[in-house]
Amino acid sequence: LRGDVEEIKRASRRAADLTRQLLAFSRKQVLQPQVLDLNAVVLGMDKMLRRLIGADVELVTVFEPGLAMVKADRSQIEQVILNLAVNARDAMALGGKLTLKTANIESDTAAVSAGASASVMLAVSDTGCGMDAETQAQIFEPFFTTKQQGKGTGLGLSTVYGIIEQSGGRISVESELLQGTTFRIYLPQAAIQQPVAA
Q1: How far apart are CA 80 and CA 167, in angstroms?
Q2: What percent of the chain has pLDDT over 90?
Q3: CB neighbours (10 Å) of residue 183?
Q4: What are φ and ψ of residue 176, in 5° steps?
Q5: What is the pLDDT at residue 75?
């Protein structure tokens, strides 16, 4: 019976994960926001990200010194980064480069037009297969996926969208076929610029 019990446990975990993702998309999950340094969050995930993306993908981080603090749920922001990294890895089947970049956004006109004045930006870029305009228009819809049957739920990016929206931020995407993809996340700068000790 051990095999049956193990399968039941796996199914239960998948159901719990699916429920969490649906709650994130519907922006009804309970967040525990704290003042965070996104540079420190990304740096703390370095080893995990390198294992996740594999040896064929180069991981590059570009941190802005003196990055402003944001107020967000650390575990949820980590989930956002992991989801974007997994998608980037899958888009680079033959290897490539994954770049995570942070920046303070004060008066950049493109960012302001995206509702990102006085924000902190986290950009996640890959050198993968990219997306056409039709795909880009649907990527944040729940259950939309370009992956093969059984390879994804289609909830990864809708979860990312829900977490960022619930955190008071915005997310945008730029992509071209065969030219890679960049997701830009904008989170409001925290009123108190003092990070909470991890």
Answers
A1: 12
A2: 47
A3: 23
A4: -140, 145
A5: 86
What is the per-residue pLDDT across 45-95, written as a single tens digit (0 to 9) for each? Answer: 999 899 989 999 999 999 999 999 999 999 889 989 999 999 999 999 899
Calpha distance 118→84 (Å, rounded): 24
Mean pLDDT of the chain: 82
Q: How far is CA 6 from CA 12, 15, 183, in A?
A: 10, 14, 37
Structure tokens at 146: 């370009």
Work out the average pLDDT over 35-39: 95
Distances (CA, A) of 131 to 142, 176, 182, 186: 17, 5, 11, 21
The amino acid occupying position 156 is: G
